[in-house]
Design brief:
With 215 residues, the protein is α/β, with parallel strands linked by helices. It has one domain (3-212): Metallo-beta-lactamase, Chain A, CATH 3.60.15.10. It has 8 helices and 14 strands. The chain is globular. Bound molecules: zinc ion (2 copies).
Length: 215
C-alpha cells in the first residue's frame, strides 16, 4: 500500500488551539475522527471533501478541548466513540471541565468502546495500534499507524515539549515512562500532536528537553 492511500487532515480549534484530525482510507472511503475537540462542521466538512464516511470516533484522552464537539459529531455520524476507561472520570466531568476553560458542554454521551494497549483499530484497510501512554491524563493513548509511519500522540509528546503533568489525574512518573515508550518508535515516525506543529520521533529525540534530560 502506498502512502497515497491514507488521508490525514487536521483543524486547529478552540481557545487552547487544539489539533483535531480526520484520518481515512482512500481505498474504502472509511474514516475516523481523532479527538472531536471542536468545530464539528469543519470536521464533517473535511470528511465530505474526501468522500469519507466517519465510522469511528477515537479519543486520545478526555480533556475538554479534545471532547467539546462530541455531542454534535456523535449526533451527525452515529459512529461509536472509543475511549480508554481510565479517562472515564474526566469524560463524566466534561461539563465541569468546560466551566473552567469557558467551553460550555452538556453531559457527554457515553463512550461505546474501550481502548486498550495493543488493540488494533481498523480504518478501512488501514490499521492503527493503540499505545497506552498515561501521565498527562490517566487514560491517554496514541494511535500508531505503522505502515504509514505516523502516530497521533494526543497531549503526550509535542514538538519541543510535552503535555502538562500538573492537572488533576496527571502523573509525572507515568509521563516519563510514556515518553520513553513513544521515543522507542522508529525515528522517521511522524508525530501529529494535540497541540502545535507536527514533528518526528527522531527530531524530538535530538531536540526535545523532556526526552533528553531529567525533569
Ligand atoms: Zn489534554
Ligand atoms: Zn489538549
Amino acid at each position: 500500500m502506498s502512502s497515497r492511500d491514507i488521508i490525514i487532515e487536521s483543524l486547529t480549534v478552540g481557545p487552547i488551539q487544539t489539533n483535531v484530525y480526520v484520518v481515512g482510507c482512500a481505498e474504502t472511503g472509511e474514516g475516523v475522527i481523532v479527538d472531536a475537540g471542536g468545530d464539528p462542521e469543519g470536521l464533517l466538512g473535511l470528511a465530505d471533501e474526501h468522500d469519507l464516511k466517519i465510522t469511528k470516533i477515537l479519543q486520545t484522552h478526555a480533556h475538554i478541548d479534545h471532547v467539546a464537539a462530541i455531542p454534535e459529531i456523535k449526533e451527525a455520524t452515529g459512529a461509536p466513540i472509543y475511549l480508554h476507561p481510565d479517562d472515564m472520570m474526566l469524560w463524566q466531568a466534561a461539563p465541569q471541565q468546560g466551566q473552567m476553560f469557558g467551553i460550555p458542554v452538556e453531559q457527554l454521551p457515553s463512550p461505546d468502546k474501550e481502548l486498550f494497549d495493543g488493540q488494533t483499530i481498523a480504518i478501512g484497510k488501514l490499521s492503527a495500534e493503540v499505545i497506552f501512554l498515561p501521565g498527562h491524563s490517566p487514560g491517554s493513548v496514541g494511535f500508531h499507524i505503522a505502515e504509514h509511519s505516523v502516530i497521533l500522540s494526543g497531549d503526550v509528546l509535542f514538538a519541543g515539549s510535552m503535555g502538562r503533568v500538573d492537572l488533576p489525574g496527571s502523573d509525572r512518573n507515568q509521563m516519563r515512562a510514556s515518553l520513553e515508550r513513544i521515543s522507542g518508535l522508529p525515528d522517521d515516525t511522524r508525530v501529529l500532536s494535540g497541540h502545535g506543529p507536527a514533528t518526528s520521533i527522531g527530531r524530538e529525540k535530538q531536540l526535545n528537553p523532556f526526552l533528553k534530560q531529567d525533569w
